[in-house]
Design brief:
Elements: E1 4-11, E2 14-21, H1 25-45, H2 51-72, H3 76-94
Antiparallel strand pairs: 1-2
Helix pairs in contact: 1-2
């Protein structure tokens, strides 16, 4: 069985055929679903805008969520704290 899979994603009114890793199919399908939900949200909320505007609003929305999640799940403070504790432990063990 090949690790590659041919799928077609439909975003708005356009179809996008692509070849992906079989293990990534769920993520692609969920991304397709998320984008289409946001497109519908903006189309319902602002019915006089263009499809391009809905796409740009969706793009901004998804990018903002990504950046907020990056900040929320930033492990740097925890890594720094653990490195400090490890340094203290090493000092005490070396005494």
């Amino acid at each position: 069985m090949s690790d590659q899979l041919n799928i077609t994603l439909k975003i708005g009114a356009r179809s996008f055929p692509m070849t992906i890793r079989r293990s990534d199919e769920f993520a692609y399908r969920e991304a397709e679903k998320l984008i289409n939900e946001r497109l519908r949200f903006y189309a319902d909320r602002y019915p006089t805008q263009t499809n391009e505007t809905y796409l740009m609003m969706t793009l901004l929305d998804v990018a903002l969520q990504l950046k907020q999640n990056e900040e929320k799940f930033d492990a740097t403070p925890w890594t720094n704290a653990l490195q400090g504790l490890l340094g203290e432990l090493e000092n005490h063990l070396g005494e």
